[in-house]
Every structure is written in C-alpha cells, then in structure tokens.
Amino acid sequence: MDFEFENYLKGLTNAKQCTLIEEIQSLWSGYGYVARYQIDNGDMTSVVVKCIQLEHSNTHPRGWHTSIGHQRKLRSYDVETYWYKYWSKSCGMTCKVPKCIGALEQGHKRWIILEDLQVEYPLVKQQIAIEEVGVCLQWLANFHARFLNTKPEGLWEIGTYWHLETRPEEFEKMEDDLLKSKAHEIDKCLNQCQFQTIVHGDAKLANFCFSEDGRRVAAVDFQYVGGGCGMKDVAYFLGSCLSGDACAYYENDVLDYYFECLRTAVSRRDVKIDINALEKEWREMYLIASVDFTRFLLGWMPTHNKLNTYTRKIMETVLSKI
Asked: How far apart are CA 11 and CA 17, in angstroms?
C-alpha cells in the first residue's frame, strides 16, 4: 500500500490499521483497479477504493489505445472525482449511490474512497428477470427526476461515453454511409430536446448493485455522468440486460413502467414540469437514443452482439424519418 495513501485513509476513517482485503476488478484499459479495504478500529469496517493510475495505457482490449482516448479517460476521472465529491450527496435513497468518504491525488495516482455497498447491495448480476429490470428503471427514473433542468457544472456537458464529439476515431471507422451522414443530426436531436437532465452515462447492468432480495439497487461508476436526455440511459441499459428479441417484446411495457416511475418521482419533487410534454418528447427520443448508441458500436466494434435485428430495425425506422 502506498505510504501517503495509507496515512490518508487511516486519518480519514480514524483507523489504527487499514488492510487490503481484495481487488474487486481492474479498470478498463489498465488505468488501475477497484479494491476493498478493511478498516480496523475506525469509523467503519470497510471501504471501497478506486485507485486510478493516470499514465497513458497501451492495453485497450479493442486496440483503441490512442491519445484521444487517453485524454478522454483523464477527463472522465476528473469528472467522476468531482461527481462523488460534490454531486453524489444529492441522490438520496431513491437513487442510491455510494457516499464519498474522501479523495486523494498524488502525482499520476488518484484514489477515490467510497462507502462499501457490500452489506446492503452485495449482488452484481450478469442476467436479471424482467422484474429486476423494473427495479433498475425505477432507479433511473428517480435519478433523472432529481436532476431535471439541472446544469451539469463540473461534469460532462453532454454525458455518456459514446457521445459523438468525443468519439471522432470511431466515427471515421463507420462503414454505414447513411447513418454516418445523419449522425450529427441525431446528436443534435438529443442535445437540443426541451427536457434535459443529468444522465449516468454508463448505465449498464454491471454498474448496478442489487440487494439480496433484488428489490433495491445502487449504482456505481460515474466517469461519464453529465447532461442529456434520460432516454440515453434507458436505451443503453435495456440493451445491456435484454436480448434484441426481449427488447422488442417488452419495449412498450418497460417504457410505460419507466414513465410511471418518472411521473411519481417528479410529483414528489414539487417542481414545475409539464410531465405530459416530457413523456411525449422522451418517448420519441428513445428511438433516437438507441440509434445514437448504434452509431458508436458500428465504428467501435461492428460485430458486437448488441447490433441485432431489434437495433437495426430501429435504425432503419429513424433514418427513414430524418
């Protein structure tokens, strides 16, 4: 353990000793790791630490280890640190995220120290039932409602890791000429829609932690949190946990449930939002958001299994109308 970090962690938690228990996972492209530390005789029994190494990595699993990608990564860790330090406390229990305990920067290394969710939210799932899809959609609805019409200060101006402006290399690799010719118009539709919120930006199934009974979730990994239309999160999440056939079968049901949850969440906030106008606009944006992500995949990895009959049918429908 780094000596300066060890002293910082002990002081932060009033602990006599801090011990590495396990490395939970490596960060994408070799930029560090997430680990759990035991806290002895301190204010808590354990914490989760995101240890970030900011040197240029050459280990991208898809071969995209470029200077543009590196700068995007550096910015993403700045955003995530800012999110946890200044924004995360606004979430509350309806869209639970880990509490930020502290953050330390030392040269090319950075540590974000977070609440350990393992006791209340111990499960990360690779497959879920449709009822659990609803639990995550409820989290997203509460998150989007909480930050409606909020400027993303200190975050990405436009959230999501596949945002067109931040992915010029993938865009150039695209071979679908029609989608390529209309990609900027699709991006403009999403960025200029009337109702904006803060989006998680990487709301895949792997970034949700479930309670034992599967009725509650918390979300992690906020590197690409920023402004945007909530349908970006919804379309991306559904594609991360449902097959193309399942997306087609459940599309109306899951969208109905999301908007039901969103209406409830907005009513609790007592803010002046025309919820009928919002729902009408965002239902239309669902298809646009799906095609926006398809644009990224076609440049980044055109053989990806998320490029299926369902997403291609949506793409054909949207492109025929734009």
From this structure: 10
